[in-house]
Amino acid sequence: MTTGLQFPLQRLATGLLLLLSVQHWAESGKVLVLPTDGSHWLSMREVVQELHSRGHQAVVLTPEVNMHIKEEDFFTLTTYAIPCTQDEFNHLLLSHTQLFFETEHFLKKFSRSMEILKNMSLVAHGACVELLHNETLIRHLNATSFDVVLTDPVYLCGPVLAKYLSIPTVFFLRYIPCDLDFKGTQCPNPYSYVPKLLTMNSEHMTFLQRVKNMLYPLALSYICHAFSAPFASLASELFQRAVPVVDILSHASVWLSDFVKDFPRPIMPNMIFLAGINCLLKNPLSQEFEGYINASGEHGIVVFSLGSMVSEIPEKKAMEIAAALGKIPQTVLWRYTGTRPSNLANNTILVKWLPQNDLLGHPKTRAFITHSGSHGIYEGICNGVPMVMMPLFGDQMDNAKRMETKGAGVTLNVLEMTSEDLENALKAVINDRSYKENIMRLSSLHKDRPVEPLDLAVFWIEFVMRHKGAPHLRPAAHDLTWYQYHSLDVIGFLLAIVLTVAFIAFKCCACGCRKCCGKKGRVKKAQKSKTH
Amino acid sequence: MTTGLQFPLQRLATGLLLLLSVQHWAESGKVLVLPTDGSHWLSMREVVQELHSRGHQAVVLTPEVNMHIKEEDFFTLTTYAIPCTQDEFNHLLLSHTQLFFETEHFLKKFSRSMEILKNMSLVAHGACVELLHNETLIRHLNATSFDVVLTDPVYLCGPVLAKYLSIPTVFFLRYIPCDLDFKGTQCPNPYSYVPKLLTMNSEHMTFLQRVKNMLYPLALSYICHAFSAPFASLASELFQRAVPVVDILSHASVWLSDFVKDFPRPIMPNMIFLAGINCLLKNPLSQEFEGYINASGEHGIVVFSLGSMVSEIPEKKAMEIAAALGKIPQTVLWRYTGTRPSNLANNTILVKWLPQNDLLGHPKTRAFITHSGSHGIYEGICNGVPMVMMPLFGDQMDNAKRMETKGAGVTLNVLEMTSEDLENALKAVINDRSYKENIMRLSSLHKDRPVEPLDLAVFWIEFVMRHKGAPHLRPAAHDLTWYQYHSLDVIGFLLAIVLTVAFIAFKCCACGCRKCCGKKGRVKKAQKSKTH
Fold first, then answer.
1. What is the pTM of this model?
2. Does Transmembrane show up as a keyword for this record (chains A, B) (predicted)?
3. Which of A30, B39, B246, B443 makes a 20 to 30 Å CA pair with B230?
4. Best CATH choice for the domain A28-279+452-474 from the list 3.40.50.2000, 1.10.4030.10, 3.20.20.140, 2.60.40.1080
């Protein structure tokens, strides 16, 4: 159905189309980019590169201590100091990923997890305070006259700064916890069929799943408050008035996101969906990887990576995994930087890094073992590769559940699974044709769209620059109180009228009846007294 | 900002892009088109023409008695008999438009209006019965193996037939009364900021306007029931089970519509917006019209049309209008087939038909006098021409209100206005620069989009053909009851638990207190008796 030529041609056509938008936007724009570190930066980076190639100037503003955001030739990097050294930062991240594999008691693990989260929040908040109180930098940013701010709102410092600088803003996000996306866009969010983050519910829920769907956000509200309140205080301090988080987020003109992964639900006109922005661009494989694939014979290969955050795991778990991998005929390319498991079979090759999307795009790739992060899931879908999913944290559990619901893969609990579980899961997704068919169907739906996501992202950023925001896409709901939004005042007013009318009618009837009865009574009495 | 070359180039690019979709869709598709007559057909006709030019075969199925749907070379016309002659049909339509200008008492006019509506409904329903009971035709349609049905759901017969034939369906609509679009797509519909049809509210409403917004749908529910119930009965008879209207409408895979004209509000992922599909294609003006424009001098022209339904008006009103038109220095091109008003000034030219969009696109056009139908409004916006609006019926009042709110025109009540009102309105929109600036801003926002609406329409129709529907865009809300949708069962359950726990806690406390007090009481009593 799809030819190899089609996608390059499609890119060419959308490129031509968007080139006309650049023509439309006569001068080059100035874009202030406030990214969120980690894998979030990976897709935003591609958008910044595309903006540069269309003649815009991007300034990327980031803490001097970070993971992936380094100097590149398509943007100007501006850093600011934060109250944390690179070592402390790395240690914090490592403790977060290591904690996952520790087999402590749930409550102890939860309390340590909360502690790490609190420390991370402190660092994030501290960095934001440093940034917003850096008067020289703020003056410089004000003087630069940026046309648009591009930021990932999962780190709320970007939205606060954008609002403070009063620059039209585009949010670029993968997901945001605590339903802040719904709140910030005034988007309806029915609990009955929109599965909440971390519930692992699908859109079709049983009664008890719907109860869970309603209780989860309540249970998480403490964490949500801890996550967002410091930034609301910071904004309130800057603006010298109470600024709730929703106000900070509602400053955005357009939300470019891939957070609606699968289940159809209400959206707003300023939400633009770019799912899979990362899997369009492909590079040829290096000789090393071509070699592995050619040597794999008719059985082909399996790609295995637990994402950019996790590159090593406890030895015992690694050995269990290695044992399972040794029992399939495919060659396994495993991104792993830890100690080599002693039982590693000949078919398994450890690599420090792998070109994940390019490998998944190879016709000899039979399966993908993934932690089911957003990027990985979309690369699996784009390339039509069935998945064995080992979700670790965040939205990964939900992602895995969604793929499993669609019959495109198998989910394993990496802590509890045995070697046999992994072996069986791999054999199932490789040999049972239904997994391949389901992922191919998803792939063909996903790739069938009128505009490529990268072009769409750039279109909307330029749109906001051209029109100095997008006030025509801002719903009037932002200007209503919660009771006005739900028409409670109108309902109360109408109810009061109905009740008043009913009361008066009742009183009139009662009075009429009394008069009538009274008259009759009097008449009867009179008649009685006459007859007596 | 925009060059003359840009839009043809943009069409070329989107054309190339969509051509790739055709490549994607290897064979040509068979499209069954069930249009709604009148101006609704005018934009659907363009989509059918585009489908034909991309290699698809379209069969247009329509009653043999109709207004505008005639044989053309880009589709096969199939007609079916209806229980009404062309004369009766024309008379019915004429009585509808004539009624508007009659100056009877409101109640009398309302009752006549209801009678005409009832007669129209009877004809529409009768036609549908004829179609659905025409066994030969239904057999033929079944045998043809259509890939997709394209229909305008404002005439509910199309959706009923589509569901009956079990063919994936795309709705193409301009507007649909009684919030059936919200119901059919399970789209949330907040009363607090989404203005209801006929209320003439804007998105920013006062308290009383919000009360009106809530009461209007209640008041119109009788008419809504009369409009839709006959088709629900027809469907129930066909399917041998109760089929509510929402079920008929929820059969559609994709809704291509321009019914979100302006105010941002919740939408669903299968709603695709194509506003202004009719104003992209332009033809050169004929010598006759070029002549009028050239002769108009520096003052330019004013275009005046009350739409395809109304081409003549009562003589007195026509004379009032003619008097006003004579007082402006512009040349007025007036589409009018009635008797020539005796006071017609030299600057006013009566024509039986005019190329509205081409004239509005001419740089010498200063203003547009319109009944503010959907097509006219968009042609005004696309071409950036300020408007004097004289809404007559249907959604026209709302359209006019929306343009007025945005400062792009002036609304007049055609029954109550004086000659001076029209003169002043015309002079205002022509001489007050703010009207031109506002409509130009609207125009630039409206035309700035990543894909042209005609291409988008064709893309989604082909998408539904390629994937045999779009079940991945169907929200799970369709499978919930109303109380499940609003989580009333979950809320009730949780409330019951909270109340039970509170009740038990209260009882335990009360019991504890009693025991405690009882003991104390007994102790006190014992102490008392000892001391005594």
1. 0.88
2. yes
3. B39
4. 3.40.50.2000
